[in-house]
């Protein structure tokens, strides 16, 4: 198992590097963006960016998921190249057709999404470009991941980040384009990067036909994942659309909630790195018993790491928001921040169950769980948003994922039994959650002293877990050996 864990950590590190740089740069630029963009502008950006991802999930028809699954069924390079060509050409065709149709209907569709906002049609057309570039770039990145071309992946991602940040700052600050500048900088960069990646592996796109799985085979695996994946993503975005149309709220409230989502990015990049690195490794393990143990072990430490991050955001959210924006209109974002971060962390757990269903080749089980989660989110939004405001939206997101996780466990436990470490999972929830909740209730909520006391509470979480015997004896031995090795290296 140690070999698989080292491989997972190595790949995770590579996938996290660009996201770490991207998230830190994006957070570092928040004072600039929130100065030049009103809360309503930020709400526009969020609604269109989330819509781009949702439409992308639909128009790719599960091709990326099928590509990831079937790439490992045959080690013959000729047939793998044929699969690459089939997937790339399919997505290029579908995204171009949908983008053309959306561009022709840009005026009425922009009013549907944004209402009568200034420059709504221009914003929508930029989002159409984003749908095309984002979808094709996802497949280009997927090819790099399955080949474990880690350096190329990191380089392409960092180039994307660099162009995005430079172009966005120039367009927002220099040209005063506000929401249009932020979106165009993002999607223009993605377009350039996907064209560059296509050129870099053009030899794999222009070969002769091979013996890859035919399109009907790929669709039989991929299409059933679309309703589930679209429903899962709808769980993440329905709150913003509901907030936009809720009485007395609108786009400014969406902007505040979106800042909480942005600040939860430290959890988001962990989840996305896990989402990218985990399926290729999980599918590549042929022995079911070994896979069951590894799935359980990785789940435990994912919950520990993501839970610790969520606890930090819960304890220090007030200070983080005020540090990163001088616009008082954004200050209430600290209230939903812990709940949004927790919801994203729970999504990472959902990825574990998606892989279990994919391993058993029964992806149709994903959809009922996703629909249950979406329905739960809508019901909780209706009940909680009027009473609790934006905090209610964050709680609704967590409630939706709790229902989805329970449903997926029930649907998959007889198909593939994972050796979940229930005692240690419960221990993490009690210790990490307990310290976060008690710290938020009992410790000062303002001033430098409050910040320091809450930071100390957060830093005490690993020690509390060790004192309650969370770690196995073998894990403690490895940690001590690692510490001794570093001490000798330092000496």
How many individual helices?
21
End-to-end span in angstroms? 31 Å
Query: Major sheet, described briefly?
Result: none
For this structure, the quaternary state is: single chain
Class from helix and strand fractions = mainly alpha
Using the CA coordinates, give the radius of gyration.
23 Å
Overall mean confidence score, pLDDT: 84
Order of helices and strands: HHHHHHHHHHHHHHHHHHHHH
Helix content: over 70%
What would you say this structure looks like, in words?
The relative contact order is 0.11. Helix 3 runs antiparallel to helix 12 (225-245), helix 4 runs antiparallel to helix 5 and helix 13 (251-263) packs across helix 16 (337-359). This protein is mainly alpha-helical and 491 residues long. It has helices at residues 2-28, 30-36, 39-59, 63-70, 77-104, 106-114, 120-146, 150-174, 179-200, 202-205, 215-222, 225-245, 251-263, 265-284, 288-324, 337-359, 366-388, 390-412, 422-442, 447-467, 473-490. The longest helix is centred in the middle third of the chain and has 37 residues, at 288-324.
